[in-house]
Amino acid sequence: MTEKEPLGLVRLDDSDLMLAKAEDDVRGATVVDSDGTEIGKVSSLFVDADERRVRLLDVAHGGLLGLGAEHRLIPVDAVVEVSEDRVTIGRTRTEIAHAPGYDPELTEFDPTENLEDLYGYYGMTPYWFPGYRYPRFPFR
Questions:
Q1: TM segments (predicted)?
Q2: Among 3.40.50.300, 2.30.42.10, 1.10.472.90, 3.90.50.10, what is the CATH number of 9-121?
C-alpha cells in the first residue's frame, strides 16, 4: 500500500483551472513514439488540481473526426521531448498500443483508478509516492 493516495486529477477541458506553466499545454499536438511513428493527438490533459501540473496525457488515435477513437492515458513522465506541435513518448508504438485504455465518455470515469497499474505498466514511480520528482516537462 502507498503512503499517500493519488491527488485529485481533473480533465483540464472540464475545469476552469489554468496550468502553472502555460507552455505545458500540449493539447492538439501530434504524439509520436520513440521511432518517430505517429501515434495520435493529445486530446486532453489530466492535471493535479492542487499543483496545477500535468500528470497524464489523454492520447486519442484512430476513429473519424474523433468518433470511435481509442484513448490511452500516458504519464507525463514517459514524455522525452516536446516541440512546437509534437510530443515524443519514450516507448514504441506497440508498447503504447498495449497500454491500458479508457473510455473518456464514461460519466463516472475516475482517472485516479488503476493509476498504480498504469505507472507500473510504464515502469515509472507514481507521482504520489514519496521521493517522486516531476519531470523536466515540457523540454522546450
A1: none
A2: 3.90.50.10
